[in-house]
Amino acid sequence: MTSTAVASDSGEDLAVVVDQASMTYRIRSSSEHLREDSGRWSRRFKRVTGSGWATVHALDSLSFVVTRGESVGVIGTNGSGKSTLMKLLTGKIRPTTGEVYATSTPVMLGVNAALVKDLSGRENIRLGCLAMGLSPQQTTEKFEMIVELSGLRESLHLPLKSYSSGMASRLQFAIATAVDPDILIIDEALNTGDAQFRSRTKKRLDEVREQAGCVFLVSHSLGTIRQMCTRVLWIEQGQLLADGDPDWVTDQYREYTEHQATGRRRSAEIAYQRTRMHLDSVQVDWVPGTRPTRAG
Ligand SMILES: Nc1ncnc2c1ncn2[C@@H]1O[C@H](COP(=O)(O)OP(=O)(O)OP(=O)(O)O)[C@@H](O)[C@H]1O
């Protein structure tokens, strides 16, 4: 394993810096969650003796740097810590130790565009844009782009309650991307779309990246990750296991999860350790005056 020191003398290229960030949750130790977990996983759970509480080490000292123009896929098995990492990036929660920096406030898709069931698709677009802080004129300017991206032109007059969950997700996604965020976080939202929607989405994500932003995409769909991302982070058991080329990382991940699924624990462990050996550890080393804002 090699160590890379990151100096931010090219400060304007940075988008996100995660510096040895860890996150520990406190939960009631009688919870189902604790009783069900066993083996390797149980190392992440510790009962606080006599208190009725336990700690869950959701993330363990993660460090990585993302620059503008990157589209970063985030993969990992259930409960590995992906959503926790995204919440750290948006500043919704603060790391227990370590730090997370962002050059602008990351926008999490879905949070910023709540849909109203009794209103039509058209009304939801207008309301969603205004709720995200766009002016009435900006809303009018973005309207056509949103309709085009959602692929829901024929259904715009219908109330949202008549939409399928896939249609609603597409509309929500299209509205959320209207704000041209500098840093966009998408957590699973693309899994419902069909091939055409994915292709339009890729185009829109490319536009966001070209506007000097960056995109984080959390997904269990390796196809989506390969198609959309320029780099992939694999988070496993709260640790950063791989960070690199989408094809290579998703290949390792597929091998690991296939072994896991068929009960070949030894082979899974070998794949895990082999992947880990390729990870360059990152040490964040700021040039004075170039440190971006703390997320949250
Ligand atoms: N608010 C919370 N309180 C206690 N434990 C939590 C909380 N949120 C997450 N956890 C625990 O932290 C660990 C990481 O959870 P997280 O939701 O980040 O995983 P994930 O990779 O997003 O999972 P999934 O793929 O299933 O969505 C899990 O063990 C989870 O049970």
Automatic annotation (TrEMBL):
SUPFAM superfamilies: P-loop containing nucleoside triphosphate hydrolases. Residues 43-262 form the ABC transporter domain. This is ABC transporter ATP-binding protein. Belongs to the ABC transporter superfamily. Pfam families: ABC_tran. One of its GO terms (molecular function) is ATP binding. Gene3D superfamilies: P-loop containing nucleotide triphosphate hydrolases. InterPro entries: AAA+_ATPase (IPR003593), ABC_transporter-like_ATP-bd (IPR003439), ABC_transporter-like_CS (IPR017871), ABC_transpr_TagH-like (IPR015860), Bact_Polysacc_Export_ATP-bd (IPR050683), P-loop_NTPase (IPR027417). PROSITE patterns: ABC_TRANSPORTER_1, ABC_TRANSPORTER_2. Keywords: ATP-binding, Nucleotide-binding, Transport. It comes from the Bacteria.
